[in-house]
Design goal:
The structure holds two protein chains of two kinds. In chain A, a hairpin with a 6-residue loop joins strand 3 and strand 4. Chain A is 61% helix and 6% strand. By secondary structure, chain A is of the alpha/beta class. Chain B is mainly β. A five-stranded antiparallel sheet of chain B has the order 4-3-2-1-5. Classes of the chains: A alpha/beta, B mainly beta. The interface between A and B is large, with 47 and 37 residues.
Chain lengths: 756, 92
């Protein structure tokens, strides 16, 4: 165990591995305290089956204690399975997590009443509690005087004052945790519920028999009774059937008849008890002083100035992931992976056969495809951490909420959507900041509709080849089309999200109640930690899947390897070499010799390109393309386009390279104008349209629309899987986007042909 | 939701949604049922508590209020569930 600061270790060690859970409202500095307690050694995982992060780390200074950071929440009244995680962990009802031996409730001292609401709920969980009274510096600055002894006596739990941002109070908290683990007792409830209510809670025991093992704990029974339509009730009814629903409804009716209706009961009782306590223990100035936060907000949420500041900031964020990451990505792509690939291929250091190609195309291409996203993810998460830790994120959501409500989303979805213009992968990861699960999934499912940077090569190719330069309404029509592709995705989010929120994601969204926390200076170390963990999570968990898919698609495009094609190519190459020999011998001048060499090199290159195309045609992938050709025929694409579409499943931009291979283009197809010419010259090889061009304006624009709307990106799918915890959502997203892409492409082709 | 139909900005049916920037009020009741009411209550908007309207977002919605010493943003439609009595101007 590394010594981080000098926490008091004079206390005897706690025996056996113990767990202390950290719980608190959002914006209370809980993460700062977690980092201080664990010395930044926290590990992030996911609770199985829900989209909640599980953070654990060893407690610094006391042997054998693990700290478990529970998600920030205002209340234990869970509305969704995600919110139920905290309740279940506290009650030891999650098989994947040991029941904590003590709970640290982190409260914001400057905002004590609302924070004590959650604390009073935790008091009833039957576990020893330590109250971490954080942000005492902020409270003091606002003129709040808190009598810690009176607070501790009134609550019946140890209270540790902290200013965790400055590192003050952490050793005392460690000591209090140690004491609570050794000899702590659960506190008495803070708020007394009427006896009629307690009787109904007790009467639920036999009704709920069979829900989990043993008797259902009191806290869960309270939640079932109190939270009308909540997650606890829903789970009990799902497990035990309608009799439970009837029993709970009857109990609530009896309570209502007795004058203690459950609606509003809990809040009234708890805030009543909290009010009585803070009356004694806290002194506040009559008139709240104008804080720095008030002054900053007067600017940053101002109608005009605030909106401009917001636009400027978002432009900065967008540019950073779009253009700052670009050189880094280019460096990784060209200098690192490109050089490595060229190094291996140059002289065929791995034998030049299937293995070399697997390494160069499948593995290096795949790993490169993963790592190339890293700069964007790390930079975006740096910004997200700064925006969130400073308190601005809530302001951004406040400003944007009205706009995003058009599609049934909230202001929280803005940053994920914006980020997705650079890349859907960080965008989807950014959706973690959306509290409502339904909104989060709707955002994750629609974010890939935003035109990401990987679409640009496809747009460039098609626009360059098929759209003549010229002006439409005075604007460069190529640029107009480019902008149109971006607009297409934005416009489609509205109906797609709207439909999702009324069908698959139907149901009550939690109300958009959002605290606007006081502004704070973000801590460099905390920001770095978030950047690092986002990067690691992506590479480790999404990366493996991306790599596997790249290798599979590589294998499909390589096997079966027709030896005849290779022999034909070798014959051409040999012939070119022989004729070069003859020409060199006969050539009278240096110039003629140079011309002969150039001609021979061109012939070899031509043969290589032709063979690559021929191999692809005869591979499993080529056969798949031929098999699905009829599907794409209404749009006007031949089997080569079909192959390119299938081959670009790992990543959209692959389509350009694949088209290059299939249309026998030598050299770098992405930079070459010859691919454009080849596409223009492409003719149907057979069928009724034999001899006609494959690409007219209609089928070319259709290809662009297809790639604007499809979800040909295994990284996005892998991240969706990781963020939603199930394969269902990524599969759904793939199906709906492919359908949209197909219909969009077909419509584009039909309309364009009718117009031209 | 009961009795949250809006109406003129005066009289006994005044709601939080109808207050203007800078106005202060006392919460009389949070009306209706379901998740919204429960969340509003949990966030401390209980009967008898004072609220002040700090500002509205640039597009007029959502609104920002100060309650129990902290800043809370809520949508105007949701604020209609909070019945209030106006008690004056100035910060809470």
């Amino acid at each position: 165990m590394t010594a981080h600061e000098s926490a008091p270790v004079a206390t005897p060690p706690v025996t056996g591995l113990r767990t202390v859970a950290l719980l608190g409202n959002p914006n209370t500095g809980k993460t700062t305290i977690f980092n201080a307690l664990t010395g930044f050694r926290g590990r992030v995982a996911n609770y199985p089956g829900v989209t909640v992060e599980k953070k654990t780390g060893p407690l610094t200074g006391v042997e054998g204690v693990s700290v478990l950071d529970l998600p920030g929440t205002y209340s234990l009244a869970a509305r969704s399975p995600d919110e139920m995680v905290a309740v279940d962990v506290l009650l030891g009802r999650r098989p994947d997590t040991p029941r904590p031996d003590a709970v640290v409730v982190v409260v914001d001292a400057s905002n004590l009443e609302r924070n004590l609401y959650l604390a009073s709920q935790v008091f009833e969980a039957g576990l020893p509690v330590v109250l971490a009274l954080n942000m005492t510096d902020v409270a003091r600055a606002r003129g709040h005087e808190i009598d810690v002894a009176a607070l501790s006596a009134g609550l019946g739990v140890p209270v540790v004052p902290l200013a965790a941002n400055r590192g003050e109070g952490v050793p005392a908290l460690v000591a209090a945790i140690g004491a609570a683990l050794r000899e702590g007792l659960p506190p008495r409830p803070l708020a007394a519920f009427p006896s009629a209510f307690e009787a109904e809670v007790a009467a639920l025991v036999p009704v709920l028999r069979g829900l989990g093992t043993g008797d259902v704990p009191e806290v869960e029974r309270r939640r079932i009774l109190l939270d009308v339509g909540g997650a606890a009730e829903a789970r009990a009814v799902a497990a035990l059937g309608p009799p439970v629903a009837a029993a709970v409804a009857a109990a609530r009716a009896r309570l209502a008849a007795a004058g203690v209706a459950v609606e509003g009961l809990e809040a009234t009782l708890r805030y009543g008890a909290i009010g009585a306590l803070t009356e004694r223990a806290v002194r506040r100035p009559e008139v709240a002083p104008v804080t720095l936060t008030d002054r900053i907000d007067a600017v940053l949420t101002h109608r005009v100035v605030g909106s401009i500041a917001f636009l400027a900031l978002m432009t900065l964020v967008f540019l950073s992931i779009f253009s700052w990451a670009e050189p880094l990505m280019g460096f990784l792509e060209k200098e690192v992976f490109g050089r490595l690939q060229a190094f291996i291929e140059d002289g065929h250091k791995l034998g030049g056969g299937a293995f070399e190609n697997l390494v160069v195309t499948g593995i290096l291409g795949g790993v490169g495809g993963v790592l190339v996203f890293l700069p964007q993810i790390v930079i975006l998460f740096g910004f997200l951490a700064i925006l969130e830790d400073s308190g601005y994120m809530a302001r951004a959501a406040f400003l944007m909420d009205r706009l995003l409500r058009w599609c049934g989303l909230s202001g929280r979805s803005f940053i994920p959507m914006l980020s997705s213009f650079a890349c859907a992968v960080p965008g989807i990861m950014a959706a973690r900041t959306i509290e409502s699960r339904r909104d989060r999934i709707a955002t994750i499912l629609t974010a890939p509709l935003m035109s990401c940077s990987a679409r640009i090569p496809v747009y460039l190719l098609i626009v360059g080849a098929f759209v003549p330069p010229g002006r439409l309404l005075g604007i460069d029509q190529r640029a107009l089309l480019f902008a149109g592709m971006y607009l297409l995705g934005i416009v489609l989010v509205v109906p797609v999200a709207w439909i999702l929120k009324r069908t698959l994601l139907r149901g009550e969204s939690p109300p958009f109640l959002m605290e606007l926390p006081p502004y704070q200076m973000p801590k460099v170390r905390a920001v770095a930690q978030r950047m690092r963990s986002a990067g690691t999570a992506f590479v480790v968990r999404a990366g493996t899947l991306i790599l596997a898919t790249s290798v599979i698609v590589w294998a499909l495009s390589w096997f079966p390897r027709d030896a005849e094609v290779g022999r034909a190519r070798d014959a051409v190459v040999a012939e070119a070499g022989a004729s070069l020999e003859r020409a060199l011998a006969a050539a009278p001048t240096d110039e003629a010799r140079d011309a002969a060499r150039t001609a021979a090199a061109a012939a070899v290159e031509e043969a290589e390109a032709h063979a690559a195309g021929e191999f692809m045609r005869r591979s499993a992938l080529g056969r798949m393309g031929r098999a699905v050709e009829p599907v794409f025929e209404p749009i006007g694409w031949d089997w080569k386009v079909a192959v390119a579409v299938i081959a670009s499943f790992p990543a959209r931009e692959v389509v350009v390279g694949t088209l290059g291979v299939l249309y026998d283009v030598s050299g770098d197809p992405e930079e070459s104008t010859t691919l454009r010419d080849r596409l223009k010259a492409a003719r149907w090889e057979d069928g009724p349209r034999r001899g006609q061009p494959v690409f007219d304006l209609g089928s070319a624009l259709a290809l662009m629309v297809f790639f604007a709307l499809c979800l040909q990106c295994v990284s996005t799918l892998a991240v969706m899987r990781k963020e939603t915890g199930t394969w269902g959502w990524p599969v759904f997203a793939f199906v709906y986007m492919t359908t949209l892409a197909y219909l969009g492409a077909w419509l584009t082709a039909v309309v364009t042909r009718a117009l031209s | 939701m009961t009795g949250a139909a809006g109406g003129p900005a005066a009289g006994p049916a005044l709601t939080l949604a109808e207050l203007r920037k800078g106005e202060r009020a006392r919460i009389e009741a949070v009306e209706g049922a379901g998740a919204l009411v429960q969340r509003l209550l949990e966030m401390g908007l209980t009967a008898g508590t004072q609220v002040a309207v700090v500002r509205f977002a640039p597009l007029g919605d959502p609104m920002e209020v100060r309650v129990r010493g902290y800043l809370l943003s809520l949508r105007v439609a949701d604020a209609r569930s909070v019945r209030v009595t106006r008690i004056g101007q100035g910060p809470a």
